[in-house]
Specification:
The chain is mostly beta strands. The protein folds into 6 domains: 90 residues, Immunoglobulin-like (Sandwich), CATH 2.60.40.10; 185 residues, Jelly Rolls (Sandwich), CATH 2.60.120; 98 residues, Sandwich (Immunoglobulin-like), CATH 2.60.40; 208 residues, no CATH class; 83 residues, Sandwich (Immunoglobulin-like); 144 residues, Sandwich (Jelly Rolls), CATH 2.60.120. Helix content is 3%, strand content 45%. The chain is built from 2 helices and 70 strands. Strands 10, 11, 13, 14, 16, 21, 22, 24 and 25 form a 9-stranded mixed beta sheet that branches. Strands 34, 35, 36, 37, 38, 39, 40, 41 and 42 form a 9-stranded mixed beta sheet that branches. Strand 55 and strand 56 form a beta hairpin. The longest helix has 23 residues.
Length: 887
């Protein structure tokens, strides 16, 4: 027995020792700081073209203090990441090919020897993205407001709500008023309206947009708005927009709220300090009404404008919780004839996947009220496709009989019915009206047509050319040659490429449904569907009318030709995702030629410097006539097959006195068999072409003067571009007096930018580019481009903290190499570093700092931060730097 007890004691002691050994080895990380991992955003959305959808992006940010690893799950090989593992915070670029309809997940993990400590997942969606539909928009109106008595939001009478779900919208708030004070947002972002804005006063302060009507299919949404923040700190204004100080939440009932996250651009870095914010989200269940609440946590500092809710590609899933009981809505009968009709419905607060069947009931109904109907005798027809909303085509109706109907949705527990509606099975009667007469009925206010009309005309724009706002058809009176005989048909739910230039169509406009108005002086018809369009004939001749520039506006929506159009400089019609305006002239009078962002046939198509006729649809912008070419044939007089260098990046190259290597990216069009060539550099400079890129190399400059040369990049039978090259003079043991920075330190060349901005500095009456890090609330961080040098170097630069503040600058080397000795300095405040715009700064030798770097490689980069964690999330630490030189 004693032996048995001894063995128990022995094994017990062994177990404790083993357990202790394991515990002591759990964390092999010498950093005693608690691990953290944050990833943003967690949803990326791409279109079929392989590019980010509107409001999305092609990268995500990792914020952590540990080594991390990113894994694309389920063998989704179509996803490519710029980095799959690393240490500390990073920005990961995501690339995907075209024509991918799929979803993928990227899991980011931080681990130790025992296992995974933390993980986050980024969802990547690629595929067809439906065109956006504006559900609600308000630019806060333009009426004058009394500055001595700013109206609170619930008392203001100048709201300018638009959108298909805006009719029932109301506004409430707490300590929120409408004002026209502060810096207006004019030109701060696309669509910035000014001057009226919502101002958030003393806390607590909030602003609610109530009862935006949603349809059951509107689950993938995008919310955008403009906002600014301005705090007066004893005469110094802090304009940094801190998203943590401005909260946005959603609700299905105005009581229970779900917060949403949003991103902003860097509009707060420069005048007028307005940001444009975007939130992409997906509603788990679609409520009948949506409420939006904006809450400011800074008192009397934040302004809001230009709120838009639209359909989008979706994003973070939002569960609105108690959104109410499931509900079915019966939609109006459509496409009614004497023997058939299309009926349907939609469900709210119900996941359509949970329904076992959806459809309609219908029954002949002649007298009494719909509440007296015995629905057990009705015909019940299920929809062939279980979707939300759904439609059912019913046939074999009796002409001129009235019918009652209602939609239904059946779940595992019960059947939910919509409200009854009625229709009469009869052929509708319409009144023919000419396009010209319909245009004369239009005013600046959208008005429902007063009876059933039918218009007939020829499509005079070219749907295949795509140079129009999505969902727009231009229609003109057949054979017309006088102004006022054309209009635009607009429905962004219709892919108009199914139609063609020269088709004659008949369009039925339903009373109290279709709307007509002059939208910014352009006659427009809305409120119709593809079912209302009937193609009558094909290939009709459309002859543009010859007009002068002064007649452009009068012929709006019609195809016109302007003769003797001139431009002195060749260019490219469209070279990016955005639209582009070009200035042409006739006899010295300039006018705008507009290329829409959707006009893919114009992408990377060059035009020549020439004088020729130009054709297009006449348009109006701010009362001035413009021209929108329908296709490349309309601008054939300016066609150019010549090869062209479109851009070079960077456009100039700067080396320190120690030299190095820099790569210039060259973008061309129409290159064909034509080749690139470069001019010869001499002395310590040389350049070579390699795979369409130019690599410039500099040896050390041993002279006391800067070396300056121009590199000319040319394409055979095309144009040339000049790139200035500079190598700084040898400065002995320092680079004092040099305030310009080497190319890798320029803002455009960097990455991982958090609270980092390009800052113009005026030094000795010369304006140079500097780097601003930090804000009035946070620190900042910036990582340079590849240094292009190797070995041991000194890094010197000038730095100053914000006026009356202090700033510590931290340096670390990435990709090979390290800092030898101190890795931080404390910069002194400078009276010139304050306010906005260009800073006029005087530096002294005490503002000049030097670090010793060892073991650099050409791929090395340097991260510069005003916090020790290099994440831009530390306490306020801001200032400017310039004159970055390696030697």
């Amino acid at each position: 027995m004693r032996n048995l007890n001894f063995l128990k004691l022995f094994y017990g002691l062994m177990l404790v020792m083993v357990s202790t050994a394991f515990v002591s080895c759990v964390d092999d990380n010498d950093d005693t700081e608690a691990p953290y991992l944050e990833v943003s955003p967690t949803t990326l959305i791409f279109g079929l073209d392989g590019q980010p959808a509107s409001g999305s992006q092609a990268s995500f940010d990792i914020s952590t203090n540990r080594s991390w690893k990113a894994t694309v799950k389920d063998d989704k090989s179509w996803v490519t990441l710029s980095k799959y593992e690393g240490e500390g915070s990073a920005t990961i670029q995501v690339s995907i090919p075209e024509n991918i309809n799929d979803e993928a997940s990227v899991v980011i993990e931080i681990s130790n020897k025992v296992g995974v400590l933390m993980s986050e997942t980024v969802k990547i969606t690629s595929g067809s993205v439906e065109p956006s539909v504006v559900i609600y928009n308000d630019n806060v109106g333009t009426i004058e407001v009394d500055k001595n008595n700013w109206p609170y939001v619930d008392k203001y009478e100048g709201w300018n709500k638009t959108g298909i779900g805006s009719e029932s919208v109301t506004y409430t708030g707490e300590n929120a008023s409408v004002r026209n004070s502060g810096l207006a947002n004019t030109d701060a972002y696309a669509g910035a309206s000014g001057p009226n804005i919502v101002f958030f006063g003393k806390t607590p302060t909030s602003f609610n947009v109530n009862k935006i009507t949603l349809s059951s299919g509107q689950k993938n949404l995008q919310l955008t708005f403009g906002a600014s923040r301005s705090v007066n700190n004893n005469g110094t204004y802090d304009n940094t927009f801190d998203v943590s100080k401005f909260e946005v939440a959603l609700s299905a009932d105005g009581t229970t709220w779900a917060p949403i996250t949003y991103t902003k651009n860097n509009g707060d870095a420069d005048y007028p300090y307005w940001v444009f914010a975007t939130a992409n989200f997906t509603l788990k269940q679609v409520p009948e009404n949506l409420y939006i609440r904006f809450t400011a946590l800074d008192a009397s500092a934040i302004r809001l404008d230009d709120i838009t809710l639209a359909t989008g590609a979706g994003g973070t899933e939002i569960d609105l919780g108690a959104a109410g009981e499931p509900k079915v809505t019966t939609t109006d009968a459509k496409t009614i004839t004497g023997t058939s009709a299309t009926l349907g419905g939609s469900a709210f607060n119900l996941d359509i996947a949970e329904a076992t069947e959806v459809g309609v009931q219908y029954i002949e109904f002649s007298t009494g009220t719909v509440t007296d109907i015995d629905w057990t005798k009705a015909t019940k027809t299920a929809a062939s496709v279980k979707e939300n909303p759904w439609t059912v085509a019913v046939t074999n109706l009796t002409k001129d009989n009235q019918y009652a109907f209602r939609a239904y949705a059946t779940t595992a527990s019960n059947t939910i019915y919509g409200e009854p509606k009625t229709f009469v099975a009869m052929e509708s009667t319409t009144t023919p009206i000419s396009i010209a007469d319909l245009v004369t009925k239009m005013t600046g206010t959208a008005t429902e047509v007063d009876e059933n009309y039918v218009i007939q005309g020829v499509i005079c724009g070219d749907p295949a050319g795509k140079n129009y706002s999505y969902g727009t058809l231009y229609l003109m009176t057949k054979g017309a040659t006088t102004a006022g005989n054309a209009l635009s048909l607009y429905n962004n739910q219709i892919d108009v490429t199914q139609y063609a230039l020269g088709q004659e169509i008949k369009v039925t406009l339903q009373k109290d449904v279709a709307k007509i108005y002059k939208r910014y002086d352009v006659p427009q018809v809305e409120g119709f569907s593809a079912d209302n369009i009937e193609v009558i004939s094909e290939n009709n001749t459309v002859t543009p009318v010859k007009v002068t520039l002064s007649q452009l506006a009068a012929f709006v929506c019609m195809p016109v030709t302007v003769e003797n159009v001139n431009i002195a400089t060749a260019g490219v019609w469209k070279d990016g995702e955005a639209g582009k305006n070009h200035t042409f002239n006739v006899a010295g009078t300039s006018f705008t030629v507009n290329i829409n962002k959707n006009a893919s046939p114009f992408e990377n198509q060059p035009y020549a410097a020439a004088t020729a006729s130009m054709t297009g649809i006449a348009s109006i912008y701010q009362s001035a006539g413009q021209l929108m070419p329908r296709n490349l044939e309309d601008v054939s007089g300016f066609a150019s097959n010549k090869p062209m260098i479109v851009s070079v990046d960077p456009s100039s190259v700067s080396f320190s006195s120690t030299g190095g290597s820099q790569t210039i990216e060259v973008t061309t069009v129409n290159q064909g068999s034509n080749t690139l060539s470069i001019s010869q550099l001499n002395g310590i400079l040389s350049a070579k072409l390699e795979n369409g890129k130019v690599i410039v190399t500099s040896n050390a400059n041993e002279s006391s003067d800067d070396v300056k040369q121009n590199l000319t990049i040319s394409i055979t039978n095309g144009n040339s571009v000049t790139v200035p090259i500079k190598v700084s003079a040898k400065g002995g043991n320092d680079t004092k007096g040099t305030f310009t920075s080497m190319t890798p330190f320029l803002f455009a060349q960097g990455s991982d930018k958090v609270n980092a901005y390009s800052q113009d500095l005026s030094i000795n009456e010369t304006t140079i580019e500097g780097l601003k890090l930090g804000t009035g609330k946070k620190s900042g961080t910036f990582t340079t481009g590849a240094l292009g040098v190797s070995g041991n170097k000194k890094l010197s630069f000038y730095a100053s903290a914000w006026n009356k503040e202090t700033m510590t600058v931290y340096i670390k080397v990435n990709g090979g190499g390290s800092v030898s000795g101190d890795d931080n300095i404390t910069a002194e405040p400078n009276t010139g570093v304050a306010g906005t715009g260009t800073f006029t700064v005087t530096f002294t030798d005490s503002d000049y700092y030097t670090f010793n770097l060892t073991g650099l490689t050409p791929e090395s980069t340097i991260t510069i931060a005003t916090d020790a964690n290099f994440d831009g999330n530390g306490a306020k630490a801001r200032g400017i730097m310039c004159g970055f030189q390696l030697y």
